From TrEMBL, chains A, B:
Entry protein name: Spermidine synthase
Location of the PABS domain: 15-253
Keywords, in A-Z order: Polyamine biosynthesis, Transferase
Organism from which the protein derives: Candidula unifasciata
Pathway the protein takes part in: Amine and polyamine biosynthesis; spermidine biosynthesis; spermidine from putrescine: step 1/1
Oligomer status and interactors: Homodimer or homotetramer.
């Protein structure tokens, strides 16, 4: 390739390298070498790119920002899912807001207790593209326990009070369509959407990292804390996200929940049967331990 | 800037972006935006570049590979130093092999028990350049407790049996001058260089990450384990290293040492007085917890 393809956020494919330029990470970017562009179109909501990379498998890029690669997607799909799942004794109905790639759904389906997973993704094109180019993730969407709702997650949540044991928000950064997913009203609706029992959790992926976005995380956690009595923050390593680390915000209606202690410890046999490559019960606990710079900044809001 | 500057390992400055291309991380690279090249010369041993970046402060690059940035250097300088320091009840004499930037020395000097730090760096030019352009690290080299030896670390270690409480190897990847620092003979000499008491540790930074270099880490840990009865492996987040994570190999002559439990817990007051921004006693323990893919691969060699 000799052409330069320009994407949102100033990301480019120049020669055979994709360079992610995200103004949120000023002066820093990750590059992946491109073997072939498999798909590039603008949907009603966003710019969708899928390319085959030289060493990270197929890569999904939304609005110029890497969402997942086949090689390291397991790191965050497992963390965003198995932390809340193992804080609940009997998760039966789980809602995923966003997450049209199907990776989170795949992880949720590994629990026999699960009777229904609702995936509420706003963009049909993301689902279609992932079914074609990221089948190891989107293959999960064919499971009979999965109920796909193409539509606005904010509205869906508002219209389903008391319906879910766990809600996982797997959405991109707060711009465009996803902006409403980061507002206090949404947290209030989420709280209502959770069953009115003691065991309900919310988990969300936070692309903003402690290293670069403490004020953003603090603001998000503060809004969440105004609605939920307990809020936790964990981190894990995902190589193709800026700074190599992703954050996970947890919230619960249970006033004395200890997010750091899974109520179900997975045995080595469980890990093998569930094909878990990242999450284990020790990682669960360790992921809540933060370096001083983050711990000190978040200590008044975070309960972990 | 419009020129393209080419460095070892195919790294380049193209326009105003430095792109690290390291064949060890095939198809992946980190870019930092450049404001000004402050220094670029070939020493007797390596290609040395320092540039002022847009958002990570001054950056030291050896043979095309980012060694440290002013913004995130604390993450690894603290981890490589304070883990072994807090496994020793009374560290008095510490050897640093490599580490000419002075960052590790700065961290070691934070302990009142320390009487002497020997820095054995092969490349005088690295020391000179860091004194000028990375003074927050290299300023430590003026401390009267510091003894700078410009020379071959392998030889220095061989010639100083029984001299040190702790040895920290802070060297680049095993190529060129640093190759001998990754061979079994070196581990044997290191073991001899440690005092013949019960409390002696070796700590080394491992740029190869679990995500990409399991065979390399396994080989290194195996060689180390043939010499030392106990070997441990910890990780920590450093944004400007490939994949965002760095590994730390620990070794000890103490057959029943538990690397995961610091024998000295630092209070909040200690952390403040020592200006620690990353390391704390909980991070110490948590850093030894590995994701399944790494834990399973290393479990027969690693004692943590």
């Amino acid at each position: 390739m000799a052409t330069v393809l320009n994407f949102e956020n100033h990301s480019v494919i120049d020669g055979d390298w994709f360079r992610e330029v995200n103004l949120d990470w000023d002066g820093y970017s990750i590059c992946l070498q491109v073997e072939e562009v498999l798909f590039h179109e603008k949907s009603q909501y966003q710019d969708i790119l899928v390319f085959k990379s030289k060493s990270y498998g197929n890569v999904l890029v939304l609005n110029g920002i890497i969402q997942c690669t086949e090689r390291d997607e397991f790191t965050y799909q497992e963390m965003i899912t198995h932390i809340p799942m193992n804080l609940h004794p009997n998760p039966q109905r789980v809602l995923v807001v966003g997450g049209g790639d199907g990776g989170v759904v795949r992880e949720i389906l590994k629990y026999d207790s699960v009777k229904e997973v609702v995936l509420c993704e706003i963009d049909q094109m993301v689902i279609d593209v992932c079914r074609k180019h990221l089948p190891r993730m989107a293959g999960s969407l064919d499971d009979p326990r999965v109920n796909i709702q193409v539509g606005d997650g904010v509205e869906y949540v508002r219209n389903h009070p008391g319906a879910f044991d766990i809600v996982i928000t797997d959405a991109p950064d707060p711009e465009g369509a996803a902006e409403a997913l980061f507002q206090k009203n949404f947290y209030q609706d989420l709280k209502s959407a959770l069953k009115s029992r003691r065991h309900c959790q919310l988990s969300r992926c936070v692309c903003a990292t402690t290293f670069t976005h403490i004020p953003f995380i603090l603001d998000m956690a503060t809004q969440c804390k105004e609605v939920f009595p307990r809020v936790g923050y964990a981190t894990g390593n995902t190589p193709t996200y800026a700074t190599g680390i992703l954050g996970y915000l947890l919230a619960s209606s249970i006033p004395d929940i200890d997010f750091t202690k899974p109520i179900r410890r997975l045995s080595d046999e469980d890990l093998k049967r569930m094909d878990l490559k990242y999450y284990n019960s020790d990682i669960h606990t360790a992921s809540f331990v933060l370096p001083n710079y983050a711990r000190d900044a978040l200590k008044h809001v975070i309960d972990t």
